[in-house]
Amino acid sequence: MSGAPRPLVVLGAGGSAREVVQLLRACPDAAGEPVAVTGLLDDDPARAGTSVDGVPVLGPTAAAAEHAGRGALLLACVGSPRDPGSRARLTARLGLPDDAWATVVHPLAAVSPDSTVGAGSVLHAGVVLTVAVTVGRHVYAMPHVVLTHDDEVADAATFGAGVRLAGGVSVGAAAYLGSGALVREHRRIGAGALVGMGSVVVRDVPPGQTWAGNPARPLTPSPAALVEASL
Ligand SMILES: CC(C)(COP(=O)(O)OP(=O)(O)OC[C@H]1O[C@@H](n2cnc3c(N)ncnc32)[C@H](O)[C@@H]1OP(=O)(O)O)[C@@H](O)C(=O)NCCC(=O)NCCS
């Protein structure tokens, strides 16, 4: 561990960003280097010049490259079930190299030595990667997510708190698994798919679809919603 903390700028100012600010107050980045969150970048003009949990909002996300050029690490912390692809779009738009991004693993996460975690990813407290788990770039895992043997997670996937994957599961890019979802071994969650909270996934979920329930099935609009939509 070296001396002065490296500045880190978080992209986003919502719930995920606030969680990460707290996480970073408790730990160094994954390389063991101390970091200090110096600001947030957010595209809501109403937030410019305000502060969130004591951290100033410095401007829009378009300023990210400028901050990186001045030596700050970046961390993309946008994304919600309403827009699971937002983090993937943001990081693709910025097109910055991997070494521009911090990778943050809480000291109370357990990552096996043969598992890998890509640049820009965040593992909160209690996350467990048991053996030979591959986690891509800009993945966000909330507390107590358990990924087991040989799971493969593509870039910008999101795991709500307490998600558990059995062995050999693959999760596509920018997929979103809601809190507490369970996935049976060797199943595939397609890119951009959304799995509802508490769901039990026993079949492959095709790309871009929303599935929920036990067993999880495609969510279709209720008859009432169809009538409402046709009015
Ligand atoms: C799946 C999800 C995206 C659906 O949201 P939505 O499109 O707004 O759908 P609605 O709430 O209108 O529900 C539509 C139907 O699906 C059902 N449903 C919604 N979520 C469900 C779930 N997780 N499991 C089972 N059924 C669910 C609703 O009961 C409703 O059924 P009905 O038509 O028979 O009344 C949402 O409920 C969800 O689980 N989001 C993830 C939340 C989360 O985990 N956040 C963690 C990070 S903070």
UniProtKB/TrEMBL annotation:
One of its GO terms (molecular function) is acyltransferase activity. The record marks D150 as: Increases basicity of active site His. The keyword Isomerase does not apply. Substrate binds at G79. The active site is at H149. Keywords: Acyltransferase, Transferase. This is Sugar O-acyltransferase, sialic acid O-acetyltransferase NeuD family. It comes from Geodermatophilus nigrescens.
